[in-house]
Amino acid sequence: MAAPTWLSDAVLYQIYPQSFADSDGDGIGDLRGIAEHLDYLAWLGVTAVWINPCFVSPMGDAGYDIADYFAVDPRYGDNNDLARLVDQTRAHGIRLLLDLVPGHTSGTHPWFVASANDPRDHRYIWAAPAGGRLPERFVPSPGTRPGGYLPNFFDFQPALNFGYARPQSDEPWRQDVTADGPQANRAALRTIMDHWLRLGVSGFRVDMAYSLVKDDPGLAETVRLWREERAWLDQTHPDAALLSEWGDPAVAVPAGFHADFFLHFGGPSDGRPLRSLWSNGISTERPEWAAEPCYFDADGRGSARVFLAAYLAALAAIGEPGHIALPTANHDFARLHAGSRTSEQLPPAFAFLLTFPTLPAIYYGEEIGMRHLPGLPDTEGSISIASSFNRAGSRTPMQWDASPNAGFSVAPAARLYLPVDPDPQRPTVAGQRADQDSLLHLVKDLIALRRAHPELGPRGSLEILSDGYPLAYLRSGRFLVVVNPSGRARVLPHDRPALAGVTPVKHIGVNVDQATITARPFSYGIFRL
Ligand code: NOJ
């Protein structure tokens, strides 16, 4: 079954709810705060919003440690606020997606508390070897149950038991995927999804979707599991979408996901380090990540070839039914405006994002060029286990206007979830809305262009004219796109008569004549053929 049309035409927007808008003055963003800014999101033109987990949680990992899948955490409001938000987003022509965390719960989840005190319970993976020595990675039991449990990410996130692809009788914790515990957890996933889909949400971003079945060579059993969930979804909620955090669309889409996030690519499957289009190597979860110059690099040391090869290979593998979602950043990775990157480098990135056939996903604040803030304290597990990168830098409060705390909250600055960017020149939504030449207006115009011309989306064709600097491509034979993210002027000869008479749609610093495309440093151009 193909992805729903709304997804194929979507412009996604990710909201980290802690940091978007605080309606009650406690220093932490909330659901009513999001609702108060739906006019803004509709003005911007995004069509679907994904919010990070907003469920009851001790917040050891910013809500990715869930204690109740069915209840909104009080700091964000209550279930009525979420129901209202679903209706209000719909009324603004926007769909709402929640975050599904299938691989683990919090250690405070009642399932885990029960399991830690009942040796007959198999919702989690427990080992109690006779010699008393726990297998590698297992964490000692916090309850009366002997032995220890397997965590999925932080130690306080016990892995839900979906079984092992290679059960072993001498290691009884390696249960078969068909055992009662693993089957109960599969059913629980459906119950959770069904609950929120009935409320009117349009789908889920699925956390660590690749992580469910353990010791699973080639992830074959994990794929089988998701196919089963997807078959259920097609029967019960055919208009809903599942977007995976997998990082490998060639596997995730055939596994049943409607789209997979492609923030990083390559990696173990092609035997090379993970790379990203935007960032020179900042990852939180993937120790195999290694820095390599990215394409959107001012020094022009990267190559679009690496990304294009990975993209085209993934596309060939997924065929019609799914999509490759390309985010600008997310709550785990550095923002576009990070490190030595300057704001003049952002427009070419958005020109690319919104004219390429991947599904665009804008992380909150990227549309105004919010900075990645270095040097913040570890906040709710922002310094993750696999790397020393501090995710807090990508999670600072949204900058709305020139009022205190950039309009994020009326709380005293010291009470904010994270500090607001202290730069007096920090960009704000209000400031950029008043400036027609701002990044925000460019992003809004590019979204409008993409929505008016579905041939710029995943269903339109792509022809690459140049994969160096500048990058140049045709979309559906009707648009020419040129981006030069490097700090050097570039000249690209061409021999296509059709390019001679192109009409500019949106451009800064790119010129096309009979024989050449010239691109100034940090330029972009979208032209109509
Ligand atoms: C991926 C999420 O994006 C990240 O924020 C979280 O810490 C881990 N999964 C664990 O759930």
Tell me what the structure shows.
Helix content is about 25%, strand content about 20%. The chain is an alpha/beta fold and about 525 residues long. It is globular, with a radius of gyration of 23 Å. It binds 1-deoxynojirimycin. The site of 1-deoxynojirimycin has 10 residues, from loops.
Helix content percent band: 10-25%
Structural class: alpha/beta
In which order are the strands of the major sheet placed? 1-2-5-9-10-11-14-15
Mean pLDDT across all amino acids:
94
What is the approximate shape? globular
Residue ranges: pLDDT <50 for 5 or more in a row?
283-288
Bound molecules: 1-deoxynojirimycin
Alpha plus pi helix count: 13
Q: Using DSSP, what is the number of strands?
A: 21
**Strand content bin:** 15-25%
Biggest beta sheet summary:
8 strands, parallel, barrel
Which value, in Å, is the CA radius of gyration? 23 Å
Descriptive key words:
single chain; 529 residues; alpha/beta; 8-stranded parallel barrel; 6-stranded antiparallel β-sheet; globular; binds 1-deoxynojirimycin
Task: Describe the protein's topology.
Elements: H1 5-8, E1 12-15, H2 31-36, H3 38-44, E2 48-51, E3 55-56, E4 68-72, H4 79-91, E5 95-100, H5 110-115, E6 126-127, E7 139-140, E8 148-149, H6 180-199, E9 203-206, H7 220-236, E10 241-244, H8 249-252, E11 259-261, E12 265-266, E13 274-275, H9 304-318, E14 323-327, H10 346-353, E15 359-363, H11 429-433, H12 439-452, E16 462-467, E17 471-475, E18 479-484, E19 490-493, H13 497-500, E20 503-512, E21 516-528
Parallel strand pairs: 1-2, 1-15, 2-5, 5-9, 9-10, 10-11, 11-14, 14-15
Antiparallel strand pairs: 3-4, 6-8, 7-8, 12-13, 16-17, 17-18, 18-21, 19-21, 20-21
Helix pairs in contact: 6-7, 10-12
The structure holds 1-deoxynojirimycin (NOJ).
1-deoxynojirimycin is lined by residues 61, 64, 101, 153, 207-208, 245, 331-332, 384.
